[in-house]
Amino acid sequence: MRITNNSLQEEVAARETLERRLCELRTELERMQAENAAEWGKRERLETEKLNLERENKKLRAECADLQERIERKGGRR
């Protein structure tokens, strides 16, 4: 009976240890999922900003080329 009681106590202690570890791992997983979601949001914002800057750059290059053409035409008229 004494051996069975010790064995049962060891199993209970091992189970409690595993449950604590499982709780710690779940907490860590939740933290990492939240961190991952934040990083994805940041990445998407940066990607959108990059696309907007590329569009603006393209627009400014076109304006620059247009102004360059105008300058060349005015210079040719003289």
From TrEMBL:
SUPFAM superfamilies: Myosin rod fragments (SSF90257). Residues 15-77 form a coiled coil. Keywords: Coiled coil. The keyword Coiled coil applies. This is Uncharacterized protein. It comes from Culex pipiens pipiens.
